[in-house]
Structure formats: C-alpha cells, structure tokens
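LytR family transcriptional regulator
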Amino acid sequence: MGVLAAAGIGHSVVNGLETGIGRVDAFKDMKNRPASGNGMNVLLVGTDGREKISREERDKYRLGGAPCHCTDTIMIVHISEDRDRASVVSLPRDSYAEMPEHVDRNSRKHHRAHPVKLNAAYAEGGPNLTVRTVENMTKVKIDHYLEVDFTSFMKTVDVLGGVEICTSRALKDHNTGLDLAVGTHELNGGQALQYVRSRYVDAAADLGRVQRQQRFLAALIAKTTSSGVLLNPVKFRDVAGTLLESVRADEGFGTTEMLTLGRAMRNFSPSSSEFTTVPIGKMGYRVPGIGSTLKWDEAKSRKLFQALRDDKPLAGQRARRKAVSVPVSPQQIRVQVDNGTATPDLGKRVDKALRAAGFRTTGTPGPVGLAPGAPPAARTVVAFDPRWDRSAKSLATALPGCAMRPVSGLGPVLKVVAGTDFRSVRAVRAEDAFQGEFGAVTGDQVVCP
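Predicted structure tokens:
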C-alpha cells in the first residue's frame, strides 16, 4: 500500500521508483479469464523470503527453519472505480482450492486440475498459477499482481517509524515470540512481522491471524496517511524505495498506475478502507493427501465476489457510534432478559436495546415474579455461569452500574434481571467483531481510538 501511495509526488520521482521494482509475468498465456468488472483488482501476496534476513534477526524474531517458497498472505485489494474506496478481501492460505491444469515449475511435470490448499499454488507455479487459481475460485479478474516478502515488510515498518497496534487482551505465541500485554504498542518491523505471522494466539488459528493482518494493514494506512509521508518527497522516497527493494509486480504495473492510485490516496483515510475474509462454510474440511482445509461457503462467497465485480461497498453504510472495547463480540453472546420491577414493558425495552447493540437476545423477556410485598430490584443484575465469565464481562460493560452474579450450571445463555436503575445500553464492540452482510469492517473501526 506504500507503493500505491505516490500522491502528488510527481512523474519523475515515480519513474525512478518504477525501475526498482522486480518484474514477474503473472499473466503469461492466460486464457478464458473472467470478464472485467468496475474498478481495479490487485492480488497482494506476502511471501516467505526469510533467507534474506540476517541470522541475528531470524533468531530474535523466531524465523528459523527453511523458507517455504509459498504465500503466507493472500488478499484481493479492490480499488473502486471512483478511487474513493479500497476493499480488502483475505483468502486464508489453508483454503480448499481447485488448482487448474498446469506444469509444475520445480519438477516440470504436467499436472491435471486437482485439489490443494490455496498457498500451494505459488509453490507449484509461482505468481502465474496463483493468479489463475484465485481467478478460477472467485471469478474476479485480477488486473495487477504485487508481491512483498518478509524483508521489505520489516524494513518499511522501521522506515515509517513503527506502527501503532491496540489489543484488548494479551497476545502470546511461543512459535513466533509474540508477547503483547493489553494496551497500545508501537511495533517495529520485527515485532510487526511477529504480529501478522502469529497463528497460535488462540483457537481462531489462521482466521485469527488473517484478522490481525487486516488490523495491521488498517493501522499501516492510518500511519502512512497521517504522518506526512505522502506530502514529503524525501520521506516518501525513503519509504517507497525501501519497500521496492523486495517487491515484485506484473509488467503492467508502472508509472501511470502508480500515479493513478497515488492520486486516489490523497484524501485516503482508514474509513476509506474496508476489510473482510471470504466466508467459511466448513472448518477442518479434510481432503485425502492434503489434510485439513477451510471450505468456503459457496453461496456467501459467490455473493461477496459479485459485490467486488459490481464495485459495491462491503461494509455498508451505517451510523457510527463510539463503542467501548470488550473481550467478546456482542454477536456471540446469548441473553435472556427478565423484568425485576413492577414497571410494565421494562423487560421489552432492555431486550430491544441489547438486541440493537448486537447481543443475541431471546426476544421473549419475562417477569421475575416478585413475592407479594417484595420491593422491585433496585439494581440491574447480570447472572452468568462462571465458564462464560468473559462474555459476562462484555455484557456487564454494556449495562453501566449493573451487578454481576455468578451462577454455576446456568449454561451459555446469560440472564439480565432489569432493575429500576436501568437507563440505557452502552455501545460495545469486540476487537475482532465483524459486522455487515459480509462480515466487513472499515479501517477506522479497527485502528487505535
């Protein structure tokens, strides 16, 4: 994205930068391609390239082992026709894929079409087969190909002066060495690489890593567009020159394309970008000889890629409210509301307000059933099974001043007993809460507040 941000720098400077880009023929001999849609589609891939990193840094950031010569990150970046929006769709590397007929670039053997994990396309056929496989799966025509490796990633972050990342929970991965406490962190290049590579932080595995990659890209856009890089020729040349040391692109990505995208990014901001992951229909879809894969949801993914072809926004338009960060997304929390007072319809009001905030309420609030002469509940209570304590904390945050009551054996449905103190529901959101039809979020929703 730094390469694309040549805003207002000038033709001569960009011409000089263009000569530093490594070139690949990503579209050689491609036939029967999808029809062009509106806007521009760039296939952005991140490759290993750890052999270019010093032994000291490899040890420090746990980059041991041989490079895999495969794609660690795969994203379709769609630039809208009016150049006002960038839609980023992540394609998990473990996605179940149907690889087209091809000749293996290593063994030179001819292979018929066969199932693989998506990242194997690069290992067997490089950029060309990767583009063919993605087009075959998405029916989205790829206009340009950009490839960035570990080295350029680390150096570019360092030249920018680091990138700010926030987390509402501790992140630790022994494989990469990532160790972030709750709060805000300024990550250097090596730490940023740990952040986007970590996949053993929690049970979300590769999908969790994809979300962190999207979050980092949003933060990178925020840093680039707010730090004066685009308006300072010297700073821009330093950043772009560093990035281009290890970037490879298709032959058609030249000066004109850089300037066009650069002009588009002049007024770019995190809210101009939106991020999502292709909808997954089945986790752990096992394929003989390949292992566990991620099978896309055919209907939802078809609709998502049609939206890209039609140049439609993915996140949708909605009123933005400031929201408090919580550990669990409201969309994952089931709630039963009961009225603990004698006020008619209070239960319905609380249920409706919680549902509007994203919580999965039952929609059938009931009365507590006060004993004759018993006073109404003065304070709203969140009753919860201790096994769902993180969900309970998220719900309690949405109900300022409520009391929390652990109840063993209550199960996964949390209970709210509305008291006379109820006034309103506070807006909350989880760090990785996905919204909208395609689970898309805009960049301003995931960067540090």
